[in-house]
Amino acid sequence: MAIALPILLALLVGIFEFARAYNTQQVITNAAREGARYGVLPTSSSAAAVQATVNTYLTSANLTADNISVTGLSSGTGGTVTVTVDLDYTFLFVGPVLRLLVPGSADPGTITLSSTSIMRKE
What we know:
Blueprint: H1 4-39, H2 47-60, E1 67-71, E2 80-90, H3 94-101, E3 110-120
Antiparallel strand pairs: 1-2, 2-3
C-alpha cells in the first residue's frame, strides 16, 4: 500500500491535469471560431470588435488570452479572416513537481496553448 498509493495518486493527478489542459484547449479553439465567425459577418469592421468577441467568450470560461491576432478583415467578399488565440497554461500540480525534478529550468510547468480559425468572408 505504501508503494502503490503514491503511484496511483500521481497517475490520477496527472490524468486530471491533462484533462483540464485539454478542456482549456477546446475553449480557446471555440473562442477563435467565435471570433472568426464574427469577423466574416458583413457588419464587423474592426479587429478590436473581433478581439472583444473572443475575450467575452474566454471570460465566460474564466480565462484570459495572452495574445489575440486578427488578420484579413479588410479583404472583400471571398477573402478569409484568420483569428489566432494564444494562452499560457500553467499546470497546478504537475508544474511544482516538475520544478523540483528539473531545478534551474525556466518554468517547466507552463505550456503555450494556441488555436487558429480561418473562415471565408461573406
